[in-house]
Design brief:
CATH class: Alpha Beta
Number of strands: 15
Keywords: Hydrolase
Number of helices: 11
GO molecular function: hydrolase activity
Shape: globular
Strand order of the largest sheet: 2-1-15
Order of helices and strands: EHEEEHHEHEEHEEEHEHEEHHEHHE
Distance between the termini: 31 Å
Protein name: Citrulline utilization hydrolase CtlX
Radius of gyration: 18 Å
Pfam families: DDAH_eukar (PF19420)
CATH superfamily: L-arginine/glycine Amidinotransferase, Chain A
Largest sheet: 3 strands, mixed
CATH topology: L-arginine/glycine Amidinotransferase, Chain A
């Protein structure tokens, strides 16, 4: 495995939220076809709690710092996916995002922001949540997959990714927006970009076949290739198994790719080998959480901030 010792693409710390009353959010089911609706119950909640606990421990075992927060409330069914309501950026910047579903707006937590300020060097917090009353939404690093090296924000056009909000973010944080349309095999629009693609330091995983405009597809692939990355193309079936919903992190022994057991099982040997050229694969077993329509990447809010001494 070949890799440089440090990459701005791969954070060494994450925020995770462990739910105590996990359930599938019926409010978001209309445009998230990855959800598997199920009855609520203590068994479901207990399983999700245990899955996040084990996932956090596994990442820590690999040298990733995990700031684990608990959600004991009953009004935030998607709180296990904190990457949608905030992101962090080199230079000490934090962004808070406007969320489409009202239940998801309640996920924003001041204690998480205060922890970031206490443990890391934070210069400012830019809050875009005031766009919600105008119906302008941008659901964080679910709506955008950020190339922190080449400074590009890849984004699937959807109700959760408003072009005005995206333009404001890109202006503030010095990213170039690259927007495209994507649908699954049934013609249903993809709701979040991070189920479609993952950008790591040495490679990019992408469900290119879901991109509806061939010319735009070629432009996106070419841009990723110009950044020096190898391209791991994912089939529609692999995307449905959350193979695109992964995140590269900096571990104790080098970079790792965190993804779910479901996702790893969907990859073929050549795809795994391409990933392992520059990152060790760390599978996390979260099948109950995945029923809510997101996988490992959604559960991880990467911290791209400088720790305080």
């Amino acid at each position: 495995m070949k890799q440089a010792p440090y990459s701005v693409q791969a954070p060494s710390a994450v925020v995770m939220v462990r739910p105590h009353h996990f359930t599938v959010n019926t409010e978001t089911a209309a445009d998230n076809r990855f959800q598997v609706l199920a009855a609520t119950g203590e068994d479901l909640a207990a399983a999700a709690y245990d899955e996040i606990t084990r996932a956090a421990r596994t990442l820590e075992d690999h040298g990733v710092t995990v700031h684990l927060f608990d959600d004991e409330g009953t009004q935030t069914p998607d709180s296990v996916f904190p990457n949608n309501w905030f992101s962090t950026h080199a230079g000490g910047h934090v962004a808070l995002y406007p969320m489409k579903a009202e239940s998801r707006r309640r996920e924003r937590r001041s204690d998480v922001v205060e922890m970031l300020k206490a443990r890391y060097r934070v210069q400012d917090v830019i809050d875009y949540s005031g766009l919600e009353p105008d119906g302008l939404f941008l659901e964080g690093t679910g709506a955008m997959v950020l190339d922190h090296i080449d400074r590009v924000a890849y984004a699937v056009r959807s109700d959760r990714t408003d072009p005005i909000a995206l333009e404001r973010f890109c202006t503030h944080f010095n990213f170039e927006p690259m927007v495209f349309d994507a649908c699954d095999g049934n013609g249903v629009p993809i709701y979040h970009t991070n189920v479609l693609m993952c950008i790591a330091t040495g490679f990019a995983m992408i469900g290119a076949d879901m991109m509806t405009d061939p010319r735009r597809r070629d432009e996106v692939i070419a841009r990723l290739e110009r950044s020096g990355r190898s391209i791991v193309r994912l089939t529609n079936r692999q995307i449905e198994s959350f193979a695109g919903n992964a995140l590269e992190l900096q571990g104790r022994q080098g970079r790792v790719l965190a993804l779910s057991v479901t996702a790893l099982a969907a990859l073929d040997a050549d795809q795994r080998a391409a990933i392992e050229e520059t990152a060790a694969i760390v599978p996390l077993d979260i099948p109950t959480v995945e029923r809510a329509g997101g996988s490992v990447r959604c559960t991880l809010a990467g911290i791209h901030l400088t720790p305080r001494a």
